[in-house]
Amino acid sequence: MPTIYHLIDQASWESSKPTPEHRAESLETEGFIHCSENINQMLKVANRLYSGRTDLLALEVDSERLTSPIKREASRSGEIYPHIYGPLNTDAVTKVWSLPLGTGGTFSRVSDQD
Fold first, then answer.
1. 16: three-class secondary structure by DSSP
2. 3-104, superfamily in CATH?
């Protein structure tokens, strides 16, 4: 199972969880949903964009179960990120991780939310 990760705030996940699909804001504004290739890449993104947030979750997604196409594309820095070109079907989410804040309001690990 090739796994990718999508960062989401808890309120957005709670509203998307009982539905067949999640539509991130970036799907409307950029045409795709941002994801990360692995936990380390995801933690770097979380620290760069969401440092200090206490409501952040990481969705573990089985990319083979996605109903929308996925493309791996280079960012401005040249690092490769997976992008989902369409809604994320919620039945592709295999696990939900919480991101506990560490020292200085940064993220250094994931924690099982169950």
1. helix
2. Protein of unknown function DUF952 (3.20.170.20)
> What SS3 class is residue 97?
strand
Whether the model clears a pTM of 0.85, i.e. scores above it, the answer is yes
Contact 56, 107 (CB under 8 A): yes
Token pair for 110:
């994931």
Quick check: 35 and 82 in contact, CB under 8 A?
yes
Domain boundaries, the chain: 3-104
Mean pLDDT, consecutive 10-residue segments, the chain of 114 residues? 93 96 96 97 95 94 98 93 98 96 86 70
Taking Cα atoms as reference points, which of 53, 59, 54 lies closest to residue 90? Answer: 59
Distance CA 68, CA 73 (A): 16
